[in-house]
Amino acid sequence: MNNYNTSSARTIFPNRANVFASVIIEFLTGQNCEMNNILVTGGTGVLGQHVCSQLDRAGLNFWALTRNPHPAAYFRQVAGDLLRKTSLDSALCGMNSVIHCASSGAANPDADIAAMRNLIDAAHHDKISHIVYVSIVGIDHLTWFPYYRAKLACEEMLIESGIRWTILRATQFHELVAYFLGLMIRGPLMITPRGGRLQPIEANAVAEVLTRAVREPRSGRLTDIAGPEVHSFESLAKSWQHAAHRRKMIVSLPVPDMRFRLLRSNRLYHSGCEPVGMSWGNWVREHASELNPYISRAQPKPANALTAAR
Length: 310
Ligand SMILES: NC(=O)c1ccc[n+]([C@@H]2O[C@H](COP(=O)([O-])OP(=O)(O)OC[C@H]3O[C@@H](n4cnc5c(N)ncnc54)[C@H](OP(=O)(O)O)[C@@H]3O)[C@@H](O)[C@H]2O)c1
Known about the structure:
The chain is of the alpha/beta class. It is built from 12 helices and 14 strands.
């Protein structure tokens, strides 16, 4: 459990209070507290919420960065916008490490580059000792896709920053696959893209690796991670329908969308990926009845509701 009581964990308060608390404890006990205060950017997102749950379970001090703090948030939040340098300086004050999960997504890749640049500048200013960054498997082979090109540029900026860094590349989250499958329903049909395979992973398993990494003194690229199984979209669709008690006719068609060109590249996973977490089939059985987090994230709710079924 986090070493803060539940009521304070629900409040939003300046992170300077944490630094002050460690000085007081040090003074009273004569011991060096050496607190590792962690900022989770994207702490309200699909992955970030799992990271916050894992950090909480590990008893670490952390804050979730968000542009829109919510007074009833389950974990402590700190307001900040990665695209506004001044707000970042204050959000990072008193922090030692950052797990950087925030992203504007494929719709605005340049924003991720600007966000990484601002984060690195602020991290230098606030003497952040370690940044852990989550990236995507295969991006160096798929730089024709603007989002992946931006992710690669972010990795390079971080590596050259002079700050201790850890980069973890993961495959597509089960949560994202389930979201896309939901979008593929057209009346009585479910239209899936023909060709290409995925090796999706549960976001919670990615969060576990990031949580371990932020406590490690070493820096560098971790082994790429993926879920335990490779699937075609058709097979993902079949198990999703089975778990969700849907009976749509699955029709596989060539879909002329950039994202499905990514899929057909077969570069989104590779044999060197370390398999971690639940298989797609098990995950979808447990989560089929839940509202997909990519749809529901607009409505703040306790982060551990995502894992409550475990
Ligand atoms: N989804 C996948 O399948 C997948 C696979 C591999 C790697 N990844 C990587 O994992 C990371 C997390 O992905 P996700 O799907 O969990 O993300 P997500 O659910 O879309 O969440 C995005 C988060 O970014 C935050 N954010 C966006 N712009 C921001 C800004 N300007 N300032 C501060 N915060 C900002 C949002 O916070 P607020 O709205 O609260 O401010 C939100 O918490 C990304 O880096 C992604 O590239 C994803």
